[in-house]
Each structure stands twice: as structure tokens, then as C-alpha cells.
Write a structure and sequence with these properties.
By secondary structure, this protein is an all-alpha fold. Helix content is 71%, strand content 3%. It has a single domain, classed as Rhodopsin 7-helix transmembrane proteins (Rhopdopsin 7-helix transmembrane proteins). It contains 13 helices and three strands. It has a three-stranded mixed sheet, sandwiched between helices. Its main location: membrane.
């Protein structure tokens, strides 16, 4: 790690506040005094999850395994939905898009982390860092928006079953996905513009395994109060809209289910949204856990470890939740595997 830090330090173009020296020699980046301000930063250094050399092969195998499982699990759901005509419905159309987003979400961070471990090089260019941050926010927000859209789909299916086909027509479904993408793109570009406005950095070491936007703002040496206000306002607006939509939909669903006279009918109605509810609790539960962990913990490494649950574990578990709790998906997967073997 020291070698890469020295290489990174030599590549940096920096300017100290007036009256100070303009040479950093070969000292490590982490040893740069916090009072000095780095400008024209061309690269950042990702601290990763651990500096222990003995743990690196284990981390590489672990994350590679989780990445392969996530991609294969979501690809199976995509193949099941596309190959089975019975699954060409709004609910599975949204599930298809959610699986695509989950693949993109985990592919934004994990492959780079695996390459860093294998190459023993945790340096990432400034352009690469901004690109990773933007794509990460895009997929994270898209995940949240799609979960809201899926909650609305379940609301219409349970509360207005006779008008479901008319309301959830293909045009509306495509429009909802497109709006989700546009909102997510806007959110990511706002965060990107905020970071681009930063003129100098106190350090170049990011205490995570990917370019976390909050970490980048913490490295800024200029006043980021306005940027933080804008960033948190945009995040709160998108998060509030998503959570409000989900809560409203499930409130209406619960009221509608309680009106069903038989317990069998209540169970059948609730079973149609059980998988989605489990994914919502997993997604927002882990996100809230990461937020509370970063607010309470003073250790950046613990924050990075907590973010693994949100960025890696959640996309990995989503296919299992939908496939294990959904008979239609299991039947479609079974038919797909049989047709593949027979051909």
C-alpha cells in the first residue's frame, strides 16, 4: 500500500496555501498534513476493506463468488420472464427491469474492487471516480424508483383487479420505467455537478472500496455547506417520494385485504405482494442500517464494511427472494431448463 501511495503522491499536481512549500517529495499521501490543499487532483486512492495482505485472496474469492451468484441469479429471472409468455405481465415486466438494474448496480463497484485486489493497485482516476459515482447513484435511485412502481402495480392489482389490465397498459408501464430512469439520471447528474464544483481536496484517500459521493464531499477543503444542502435535499426528495409511494400503496393494500371475508382470500391477496415487500424491507433496511452505522461509528473502515450489505448483498438476495417465494418464476425457470436440456 505504501508503494502505491508514494506513486500516487508523485503523480499529484498540488498547490499549498500561500506561504508554504510546493513539494511533497516521496511522503505517503496519508501523511500529507490536513492543512494543505490539493488542487488539480488527477487520481484518488481507494482504501478498500482491509490492508491485511493475507485477507486479500479471501476477499477476492468472496466478492467474486457473490458477483457471479448475483449476475447468474438475475439473468435467470430475465431469461424466465422473456421465455415464458405467461410472465409477460406488468408485474414481471418491472421485475425484469429490476433484475437489469441489480446487475448494473453490483457491476459498478465489485469488478473494480476485484481488479484492484488482483493487481494490488487501488488507484482510480478522477474521471473514473466521477463516472463510477454517477453510475452508482443512477442504479441506486433506479432501484428505489422501480420498487415504488412495483408497489403501485400491486396496489392496482389488489385494490382494482377488474381495471388492472386497463390501468396497467403497456404504454403506462413503459412510461413509468422511463420516468424512473429520468429521475435517477437527474439525481446522479446533480451529485456529479456538485463534486465537479469542488476546487480542492484535503486528501486523496477514499475510505471505501468505491467512490462514495459522501466520502468525496468529506474530502473537500472548501466550504461544502451549500453543496451538502443541495445533495441531501435532492436525495431526501427522491427518497421521500419513493418511500411515500410504497407506504401509501401498502396502506391501501392492507385496507383492501382486511375487507376480504375469508382468511384464505386474505392470504392469497397478501401472497401476491409478499416477495416485493420482502425486497423493499431488505433494500431500505440495509440502506438505513448503513446510514445509522456511518452516523454512529467513527471508523471509516466499519462504514465501508457496512456498505457492502447495501451494495452487494441486497442485489444478490433479490433473485432468491423472488424465485423461492414465487411459483410462477419457479415454473418458468423449470420449463426453461427442461427446454434447454432437451434442445
Amino acid at each position: 500500500m505504501a508503494t502505491h501511495s508514494r506513486i500516487l503522491a508523485w503523480r499529484l499536481l498540488w498547490t499549498e496555501r500561500p506561504g508554504g512549500s510546493q513539494s511533497i517529495g516521496s511522503q505517503r499521501v496519508s501523511k500529507i498534513p490536513r492543512t494543505r490543499n490539493l488542487t488539480s487532483v488527477s487520481e484518488f486512492f481507494l482504501m478498500g476493506l482491509s490492508d491485511d495482505a493475507e485477507l486479500q485472496p479471501l476477499l477476492c474469492v468472496l466478492f467474486l463468488s457473490m458477483y457471479v451468484v448475483t449476475v447468474l441469479g438475475n439473468l435467470l429471472i430475465i431469461l424466465a420472464v422473456t421465455s415464458d409468455p405467461h410472465l409477460h405481465t406488468p408485474m414481471y415486466f418491472f421485475l425484469f427491469n429490476l433484475s437489469l438494474v441489480d446487475i448494473g448496480f453490483i457491476s459498478t463497484t465489485v469488478p473494480k474492487m476485484i481488479v484492484d485486489i488482483q493487481s494490488h493497485n487501488r488507484v482510480i482516476s478522477c474521471e473514473g471516480c466521477l463516472t463510477q459515482m454517477s453510475i452508482f447513484i443512477l442504479f441506486a435511485c433506479m432501484d428505489s424508483m422501480l420498487l415504488t412502481v412495483m408497489a403501485y402495480d400491486r396496489f392496482v392489482a389488489i385494490c382494482h383487479p377488474l381495471h388492472y389490465v386497463v390501468i396497467m397498459n403497456p404504454r403506462l408501464c413503459c412510461s413509468l420505467v422511463l420516468v424512473s430512469f429520468c429521475v435517477s439520471l437527474l439525481d446522479s447528474q446533480v451529485h456529479n455537478m456538485i463534486v465537479l464544483q469542488l476546487t480542492c481536496f484535503k486528501d486523496v484517500e477514499i475510505s471505501s472500496f468505491f467512490c462514495d459521493p459522501s466520502q468525496l464531499l468529506n474530502l473537500a477543503c472548501s466550504d461544502t455547506f451549500t453543496n451538502n444542502i443541495v445533495s441531501y435535499t435532492i436525495g431526501a426528495m427522491t427518497g421521500f417520494l419513493s418511500i411515500s409511494g410504497i407506504i401509501f400503496s401498502y396502506y391501501k393494500i392492507l385496507v383492501s385485504i382486511l375487507r376480504v371475508p375469508s382468511s384464505g382470500g386474505m392470504y392469497k391477496a397478501f401472497a401476491t405482494c409478499g416477495s416485493h415487500l420482502a425486497v423493499v424491507c431488505l433494500f431500505y433496511g440495509t440502506a438505513l442500517g448503513v446510514y445509522l452505522s456511518s452516523a454512529i461509528s467513527q471508523s471509516p473502515r466499519k462504514d465501508a464494511a457496512a456498505s457492502v450489505v447495501y451494495t452487494v448483498v441486497t442485489p444478490m438476495l433479490n433473485p432468491f427472494i423472488y424465485s423461492l417465494r414465487n411459483k410462477d418464476i419457479k415454473r418458468a425457470l423449470w420449463r426453461f431448463l427442461i427446454s434447454t436440456n432437451s434442445s
